[in-house]
């Protein structure tokens, strides 16, 4: 969910409103977030304007400025809503079979990153973050680090279960799982397929096993 | 060296010129490449103009257009000249100690990527490539793939020497070495230090060893 400081997300903070006004407000919020995702995928981050988001969402520009300080804030809320709900809260399944669990979640991530409606806006944001250190900090804190954290938790649980050697640096292991994926994606050094992520999981785990 | 199709690189193709004209031409070429590297680090890829490169290099705009079709072509030649000479031709040392050799070359790469005069223009080009699929292809072919190829060669030689298990996919192993580095760098998920690359080499090699 968007943080209270950057979006009108929490109905409980709006109890003074009538139910109808709250519903309208929530509808506008969703329309703005959806419009920002669509548009950034179409025109890129640099050319995205609050005016265009307002027009696409069918709201006034001031409505957006009342709730968010910048286009970056709108977009980060849009992604946080999508990604948080889909992935972070659930975490990675823990069936006890680490290899199967990692393969499953990485296959789902491949599907997500090969879906243009997700990929185009996410690339626009990642490109903007790579170019701009300030934006990058927010992008990291709100999207990438929580994303990496679910892998850290799953690998740590496997380490506690004795499936990963005690001396392994779990943070580094997560980077070995996600870095090659991110490089193929962002720098287009290879194709994102289930075969790739399956093989990656196997090779990474080979180095983590107790000796 | 720049390819013959995109730059006035090969003196042997210019034998009809007087020696003085060839020297002037080579001086202009170097000035243009240097200016393009400096400027892209200062203003980013999108705001880089041929006019500004010409002004900084002290040549006419038409001199640049005579030799290169676009600013991307100038920049790619600039990087290819710097990076090829420094790294690709030499390859990775092969002392027989794979771990030491990889650590040495990755430490040198950390030093390069923490040097602003290299990092800023390289980031500008990487960001532009992440945003633009066409540019990305050239960036990949002329810079990233040759860079990955030197690792492939070194790992393959270790595999032939029996230091890496026979069933290891060397291409994937290279991605496990370079992906985490590239992610820390481009997406700023961590600091590039010698300690990081040393630990990365150790953990990757742990998974590659014959069993």
- Any idea of the CATH topology of the largest domain in chain A? Tetracycline Repressor, domain 2
Calculate the terminal CA-CA distance of chain A, rounded to whole Å: 42 Å
Fourth-level CATH superfamily of the largest domain in chain A: Tetracycline Repressor, domain 2
So how many helices of chain A? 9
Describe the fold and architecture:
2 copies of one chain form a homodimer. With 211 residues, chain A is mainly α. Chain A has 2 domains: 89 residues, Tetracycline Repressor, domain 2 (Orthogonal Bundle); 118 residues, Orthogonal Bundle (Tetracycline Repressor, domain 2), CATH 1.10.357. Chain A is 71% helix and 0% strand. In chain A, α1 crosses α6, α5 runs antiparallel to α9 and α7 crosses α8. The N and C termini of chain A lie far apart (42 Å). Chains A and B meet through α6, α7, α8 and α9 of A and α6, α7, α8 and α9 of B.
